[in-house]
Design brief:
Number of helices: 13
Helix content: 40-55%
Number of strands: 5
Order of helices and strands: HHHHHHHEHEEHEHEHHH
Radius of gyration: 24 Å
Strand content: 5-15%
Amino acid sequence: MTTSLVAEPEVRSKVEFVAHNLQNRAGIRLLMSCLLAKAHRPQVDIRKPYTEIGGADSYSGRTYDEQYLSAFIIEHGLPCNTTTAFLTPALRNRNIVLTPDVNLVGRPPRLYQSVLELLTDVYAGRVAAEDLLAETVRYLLVLRDQQRLRMETLLSQLEATDEAMPLSAESIITLIQQHRASPRSSRLLVLIVAAAYMAASANLGERVLPLQSHTAADRQTGALGDVEITLVADNNVITSYEMKDKRVTRNDLDIALAKVARFHGNQSRRIDNYIFITTEEVAVEVQEYAASLYQRTGGVEFVVLDCVAFLRHFLHLFHRLRMQFLDAYQKLVLQEPDSSVSQPLKELFLNLRRAAESQISEDM
């Protein structure tokens, strides 16, 4: 994996940038889909991955992405998004030739510009699609192995602190707050609530249903909220959580009210609670409006809770389960696809936890 398959240094540099850019993983799937199509059907114009363009030289990049590339990515554990690139805002509903002068309005701009230039390099015959595809996979394998090695090292270092005194509830809250302060961490709100129910399931007689994809809409999945809670003995949703990385408004409550009405219309059983978890301050008028919905809905409790206050109350109420919560949270964080919780965000948590537990050992 150390020998490059592409002679041109500029091309190699662009491929490495696209393959190793962790800010946006759609670019690498776009590139690989187009390269695969060109390698499979040499007569197509690699810059035309939309059949809507028309002509014998256009093709469906999304078909190559979903039908062939997805299985390859999963089989080899490649650090790519779990879903097609062609449904991202930059690429969906397009029917244009992808030339370097096209503005795909994606971030970072350099990523998409590099992909468009690479497609043109293949179109102009400066590099063969097969060679560029192999080079792209090579860079992904290098990145995969580097990430695995770092994770194994961090986990082994964390295991070395297992004999330390358990962290206090307040130390865990600080740890979670530090993790949540990172960019693109909105998914962590879901994992915090899910981990709480995983830790206390036996005590509560309730359990969390499998989490839906970070990007999936509730209408698409049929889910009522981001986290759904049921009784241990059945699958009927009794409590639904919706996470907001912003201030909750009356309009948010009205939307939730409509969702609950639709849900009740399709279910034989009503839910008990619809709970918003927010990272922002909860306005008094919003709390009062939420409370007023109980009578209006015939017995469904609506409430808006501050994330830190929720976590603090849980960890002190179930104080003996605080480390089970932390272990469950870690497990959920590491299990999430990189498109939901990035590799740097996973590594950050392990570093933060190791630092916190190491400090406990030093202070003993």
